[in-house]
Amino acid sequence: MQNSARCDRNHDVRITVLGPVGATVDGAAARLGGRRPRALLAALLVADGSLVTEDQLIDSVWEDQLPAKPRQALHTYVADLRRALEPDRRARQEPLVLLRHPAGYALAVGPERVDTRRFVDLVAAGVAAATAARPAEALAQVDQALRLWRGPAFADLADSRFLRAEIGRLEECRSLAREIRVAARLGLGEHRQSLAESQELVTDYPLRESAWALRVLTLYRCGWQAEALQALGTARRVLREQLGADPGPELARLTERVLVHDPALAWHC
């Protein structure tokens, strides 16, 4: 009977945080409640299946605004979250998703059911394809990865201290995916189709020299050498103003190659 009960409760639980924090159970939106239960879910999620102590969860959920009885309040939110993620779980029945340990809690959700894990894996596949000079495959992988985003990561908890590092990691991975996308399209000869996207890259990430290099190459391959040199000048100015440093060797070398019309910069089918 116990095994049968476990099978009956084997719901398809999926967690999404590439946008507002959310969850679905068998395709239906789970009712997570307000900010604090969502922070609880986020704190468990970023631990990637590892144990999170009650003290860590209390610090993440309430930060500097502790309730009168924080552990009691935490237990209430844990119970509510369990009901949302395991609606068929009966009282005193062993939980399958939000697990209790002597020292705290852990979230048991497979990586394929968490949008951040799928995103990172797809970007890694895109990097591998780009490195192997397979631009069509790289483009397909990062397109699929970028479609997972519904807004800023942890959009409704973006000001939480405990999420800063994770949000930064995900945004760095997102910028890499966008660069791979532009580079892949250039590799497929889609120069003019990449004009708007390459401009968005340098607008969103003005301090990334790799983004500026892609913008310059896009302009150059469209036959706009003057505009490419102008973009290099803008990159130099922005880096000096914001970082107090000149561009690195990649942009310096690219400037020389644009000036002499290096044949290697042209697209070769």
Please give the structural blueprint.
Elements: H1 2-8, E1 13-16, E2 22-25, E3 28-29, H2 35-46, E4 52-53, H3 54-62, H4 70-85, E5 98-101, E6 104-107, H5 115-131, H6 135-146, H7 164-187, H8 195-204, H9 209-221, H10 225-243, H11 249-259
Antiparallel strand pairs: 1-2, 2-3, 4-6, 5-6
Helix pairs in contact: 2-3, 2-4, 5-6, 5-7, 6-7, 7-9, 8-9, 9-10, 9-11, 10-11
Task: Round the mean pLDDT to the nearest integer and report it.
Answer: 92
Number of helices: 11
Helix-strand topology string: HEEEHEHHEEHHHHHHH
Q: Measured on Cα atoms, how large is the radius of gyration?
A: 24 Å
Helix content: 55-70%
Uncertain regions spanning at least 5 consecutive residues: 1-8
The main sheet orders its strands as: 1-2-3
Q: What's the total count of β strands?
A: 6
Biggest sheet statistics: 3 strands, antiparallel
What structural class results from the helix and strand content? mainly alpha
Q: Into which percentage range does the β-strand content fall?
A: 5-15%
Shape by Cα distribution: elongated
Distance between the termini: 63 Å
Give an overview of the whole structure.
By secondary structure, the protein is mainly alpha-helical. It has eleven helices and six strands. It has a three-stranded antiparallel β-sheet with strand order 1-2-3, with no helix packed on it. It has a three-stranded antiparallel β-sheet with strand order 4-6-5. A hairpin with a 5-residue loop joins strand 1 (13-16) and strand 2. The longest helix has 24 residues, at 164-187. Residues 1-8 have low confidence and may be disordered.
